[in-house]
Write a structure and sequence with these properties.
single chain; mainly beta; Pnp Oxidase, Chain A; 3 helices; 12 strands
Length: about 160
């Protein structure tokens, strides 16, 4: 390999992504979430989406193990603070987070552009990440436009 992990990461940073938070509820009723920018559609029929979670993440065991249902929340540019909160290791405080329960009882973030309530369809090995495929059970379309974006290692917004 003629490149370093840093070179690889810098090149990946040239691809603009949206930002989302995946939320779930453990069997004991506790809520958890993680910020992602690895969201993609997989199939229209059946409706499948995917995201990946770092094997070192505090929530990895939940998403790749116990919790088979989750909600992917596509963030609005005004939700940067939510993204930062859920990217912090061990985030467990929900007191200042606006959410409601979706049809499967998962926390759906208020103010998101869209939300996908999913049942886990499959998990695949992705090196240092697990790739989690979800079968979409419910859609909620929020306010459209003004997504929170990530490019070159920082948050961005659409212009014009």
């Amino acid at each position: 390999m003629s490149f370093s992990p840093r070179d690889f990461r810098d090149c990946l940073g040239q691809f603009t992504t949206g930002v989302a938070v995946v939320t779930t509820r453990a069997k004991d009723g506790s809520k958890a979430g993680i910020t992602i920018n690895s969201f993609a559609s997989v199939s229209l029929d059946p409706a499948l989406v995917l995201f990946s979670v770092d094997a070192r993440a505090a929530t990895h065991a939940l998403f790749a193990g116990e919790c088979t249902e989750f909600c992917i929340n596509i963030l609005h540019q005004d939700q940067k603070n939510i993204s930062e909160l859920f990217s912090a290791p061990g985030q467990t405080e929900w007191d200042d987070i606006g959410y409601e329960s979706d049809s499967l009882g998962m926390p759906r973030l208020k103010g998101s552009l869209a939300a996908f309530t999913c049942k886990r369809h499959a998990i695949h090995d992705g090196g240092d990440h697990s790739i989690i495929v979800g079968h979409v059970q419910e859609l909620v379309m929020g306010q459209t436009g003004a997504p929170l974006l990530y490019y070159g290692g920082r948050y961005r917004a659409l212009e014009g």
